[in-house]
Amino acid sequence: MASIPDDFVVDVHDLAAIILDAHAATETLLPKSQLVEINRGITSPTTLPSHVFAPEWHAAKVGGQKRVAYILKTDSSASERTTIDTFASPQGVKVPGGQELTRRELEDVFWRCKTFNNGYILAYVAQRVLDSLPPTAKLHARTSAKHEVVCKPSDVTVAEIDIVAKEACLILDYEPRPDLGPERVNLSQHMTGFDGSIPWVFLLIGEPKSEDLQADPRVVLDLVTSQLGGRGGGGEVFSLERAFDYHQKVLPKVADELEKYDLSGKIRLSDDALRARGDALVDVVMGRLRKIASGEDNFCRYCGKEEVQARCSKCKKAYFCAPCHTLGWKYHKVWCS
């Protein structure tokens, strides 16, 4: 496969979509799980009895905390992993009010589950990918607010902060075990926002030119905003925003910052298995970038999926999956030409 040319320009928005697409195709926490119910604690769950919910769920009710539970059902014998197109249970998804989920609402749950506890590994992947580019390559970070930064791959800094989620989220995944008994199941639970602050990490792209946040031209890349139930300013399942917009408009919708962020060195994953998975993802993403550099750019600019056939009807350049053009238009229309 061809190498990446020295003058290659990486669109950071495209890179984020590609990283998340590669992650969803390889993640190991919920690979074959489908959504069967959404519960916000207003009514009793119908899929599983409430006594199986984590004690924190019931404590949140007493404290009046905003909360949501996603109940997933796993079939480990399934031949293929779940995608956004197969995430909703074929038997239907039970939701408050009984309404049908829109594609965007289904995406919100899908990515909230897929990015759970993956902030550091995905930031590590983005950092490693950028470090692997030729030093003369360029990064092009463009936001939905029509702000853009062009910089070297070395002009990227890791930022860390403690946040408090505004909504507590419980992901409850079960798998029937008829071999052990008619009502036996394997059960796993994953929680965000029930126990105080959460360490949060993102990348700052561009040269620092001011300590004043409002004057700082750098762009924030946060790959896991969806874990908090949020989206980027252009409707993306990640955030690519000017730092001021990220801290004043995007993150405050879903979390409170406890202090000013700290800048740190490179992310280093100490767990061998986690690092191995991160490095494997880096290899996949670098392979995708090499294909793009060789002219194979028919990937969806919204979800990152490869081998897409339809182009934007206006610019005739960018490719989109059928449902993604509408979802991605808020961002794409700013730069469509």
UniProtKB/TrEMBL annotation:
Query: Does the entry feature the keyword Metal-binding, yes or no?
Result: yes
User: Keyword Cell membrane, does the record have it?
Assistant: no
Name the domain of life this protein comes from. Answer: Eukaryota
Keywords, alphabetical: Metal-binding, Zinc, Zinc-finger
Q: Which InterPro entries match?
A: Znf_MYND
Molecular function in Gene Ontology:
zinc ion binding
**SUPFAM superfamilies the UniProt entry points to:** HIT/MYND zinc finger-like
Tell me where the signal peptide lies.
Answer: none
Boundaries of every MYND-type domain copy: 300-336
The protein, known as: MYND-type domain-containing protein
Q: Which organism is it from?
A: Polyporus arcularius HHB13444
